Amino acid sequence: MQDKFIIKAGDFIRYHKKSTIWPGIKLAASINRPYMGWLVGNGANINLWRDTWATEIPLREYIEMP
């Protein structure tokens, strides 16, 4: 999934790629989001700016960075 829909910088692609399963995955994610949480561990794979912590929007989209 990451190879198809996520670019190397960690962001989702911003263009359309036809998929038969992606709409179902997005629907399931929206239904299950209230029951999901973060398991941080040692924090090596956590990105403060790109990950969505408490809202649907990553922190970097709230703050304009140069």
Question: Could you please describe the fold and organization of this structure?
Answer:
- The mean pLDDT is 78.
- The protein is globular and about 35 Å long.
- By secondary structure, the protein is mainly alpha-helical.
- The chain has three helices and no strands.
- It starts with a helix and ends with a helix.
- The chain has one domain.
Biggest β-sheet description: none
The rounded Rg comes to: 14 Å
Q: Which stretches of 5+ consecutive residues score pLDDT under 50?
A: none
Structural class: mainly alpha
Q: What amount of the residues lies in strands?
A: under 5%
Tally of discrete structural domains: 1
Number of helices: 3
Give the integer mean of the pLDDT values. 78
- The percent of residues in helical segments reads 25-40%
SSE succession = HHH
Number of beta-strand segments: 0
> How widely separated are the two ends?
30 Å
Q: Describe the global form.
A: globular
Task: Record the SSE blueprint.
Layout: H1 2-5, H2 22-32, H3 59-62
Main attributes of the structure:
mainly alpha, 3 helices, 66 residues
